[in-house]
Q: What sequence folds into this?
């Protein structure tokens, strides 16, 4: 996973506002509207009024498991009841496998799938607005901006069609347009057609994912605006809206952001989450593990690496999955662990063939989709994770309800 230089994220809990919030309403629009802002999507009381709908996927995964005590336990929970849980974090909304990320509809579906916490990645607009978008410069692949000629004309790199030697190219950043202009866009599934000769063809979702590395080259920030300004504005957005700090888990890949929040906004900083992707390569993994004690010593309470950092192979032919040195060290120094991202990989029988990132540390030990709950169970029961980001929240919600998991408790960080 690539992070943007200015990227900040927040997770907001639904559970503490469900009594006061109205039921979600269908907008009536055939196209999903881009989601901006940082407040949670309102739902009624999850116990009394709200029906959690998990769909068929959790049952498919359980049915594909080999016989075991875990399978028997999960089968026993087939009829629920199911409730919203803070253990389930809706990554970019929580239903990204099927619904455009960072959109209202995605967040609605994540809540319906039982995600008690919804994540919003934030990006900066030209007028210093903060909007929910994963990358500063992914608008061409995640929205319909190219179909708005007046806004497409503002893109950092205008559309050029594919030719015999070069693929189609375009770069559109949130910093190219104002917040009001951003709100006129509709979200789309992340993807593009590199062979496109027209903007309409480019919008076809043939290839997934924009390259965040374009951000540093093309994003234009207001003169004098710094990362520290961004970190402060981010927190002040919640303060100005009167949102209880206990409902918010600030996130950043940039440690100085966490330290600034701890010093200047301690009510938010104490449950801020350091997203750690510093150990992606064998030569940096050991260094990432070695830094964990000093991170905790500086006041950080929650670490959030990708889950491949937390697991390793062991035993004959590497068929056993066990906690890694990163996991045991984080636990030993008193860091709570949240991890990402479940349901972001393809079928597990293709792990080696497709070089799937999240299973890279346990390639030899995973063979079928039926092992997904085995992996989650090891993360919960042996590693001790507090919560799991997921692109399809229903999968994690099923497990969390079956085992009575409630997620991170803000009272632990007071």
A:
């Amino acid at each position: 996973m690539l992070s943007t230089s200015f990227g900040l994220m927040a997770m907001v809990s639904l559970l503490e506002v469900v009594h006061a919030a109205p039921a979600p309403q269908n907008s009536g629009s055939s196209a999903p509207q881009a989601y901006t802002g940082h407040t949670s999507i309102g739902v009624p009381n999850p116990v009394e009024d709200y029906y959690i709908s998990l769909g068929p996927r959790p049952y498919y995964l359980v049915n594909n498991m080999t016989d075991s005590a875990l399978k028997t336990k999960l089968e026993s929970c087939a009829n629920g009841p199911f409730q919203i849980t803070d253990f389930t974090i809706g990554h970019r909304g929580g239903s990204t496998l099927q619904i455009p990320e960072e959109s209202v509809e995605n967040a609605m579906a994540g809540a319906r799938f039982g995600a008690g916490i919804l994540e919003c990645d934030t990006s900066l607009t030209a007028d210093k607005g903060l909007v929910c978008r994963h990358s500063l410069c992914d608008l061409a692949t995640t929205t319909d901006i190219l179909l708005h000629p007046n806004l497409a004309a503002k893109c950092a790199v205008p559309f050029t069609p594919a030719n015999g030697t070069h693929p189609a190219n375009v770069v559109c950043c949130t910093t190219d347009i104002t917040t009001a202009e951003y709100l006129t866009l509709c979200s789309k599934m992340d993807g593009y057609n590199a062979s496109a000769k027209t903007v309409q063809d480019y919008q076809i979702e043939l290839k997934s994912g924009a390259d965040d590395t374009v951000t540093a080259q093309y994003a234009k920030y207001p003169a004098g605006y710094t990362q520290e300004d961004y970190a402060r504005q981010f927190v002040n957005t919640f303060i100005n809206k009167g949102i209880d700090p206990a409902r918010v888990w600030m996130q950043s890949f940039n440690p100085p952001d966490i330290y600034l929040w701890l010093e200047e906004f301690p009510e938010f900083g104490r449950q801020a989450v350091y997203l750690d992707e510093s150990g992606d390569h064998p030569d940096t993994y050991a260094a990432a593990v070695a830094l964990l004690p000093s991170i905790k010593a500086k006041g950080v309470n929650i670490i959030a690496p990708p889950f491949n950092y937390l697991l390793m192979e062991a035993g004959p032919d590497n068929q056993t999955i066990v906690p890694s040195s990163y996991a045991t060290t984080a636990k030993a120094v008193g860091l709570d662990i949240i991890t990402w991202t479940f349901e972001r990989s393809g079928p597990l029988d293709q792990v080696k063939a497709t070089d799937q990132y999240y299973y890279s540390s346990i390639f030899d030990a995973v063979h079928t989709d039926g092992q997904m709950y085995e992996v989650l169970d090891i993360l919960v029961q042996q590693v001790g994770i507090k919560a799991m980001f997921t692109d399809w929240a229903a999968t994690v919600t099923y497990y969390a309800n079956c085992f009575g998991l409630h997620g991170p408790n803000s009272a632990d960080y007071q």
